[in-house]
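During the reporting period the student researcher (J.K.) took over the structure-prediction task from the postdoctoral fellow and processed the backlog of single-chain submissions. One of the processed entries is reproduced below for the supervisory committee.
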Amino acid sequence: MCNRFVGTWKLISSENFDDYMKELGVGLATRKLGGLAKPDVIISMKGDIVTIRTESTFKNTTISFKLGQQFDETTADDRKVKSVVTLEKGALVQVQKWNGKETTIKRRLVDGKMVVECAMKGVVCTRVYERV
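J.K. obtained the following structure tokens:
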């Protein structure tokens, strides 16, 4: 099921990203840089290991994981989090936890595009990527 996500994806639209970053506790300067970035997301699989690499002029990040297994992650805004990614109704659902806080990042495929919904405390950001 994850193999449907495999490929290179380019950001084509972003809604409410600044408010979402604010809710995460990201500072103004980093929010401004993050808001300008138009990242590519490269998703690959090797066996049961999924790798998501995000590349932009601002910062590159890579996470590799097995579905359902917790892993340590350092986010693009330098939060140290515990993450778990599961497959729910065809969507890759990532939950990040740190310092008593939690955010959910849901990646799903809609009409050939990858729609990424980031949510924290009622603030929802939607970022849409198209396959390159």
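The committee noted the following: The first strand starts at residue 7 and ends at 15.
J.K. will present the remaining backlog at the next meeting.
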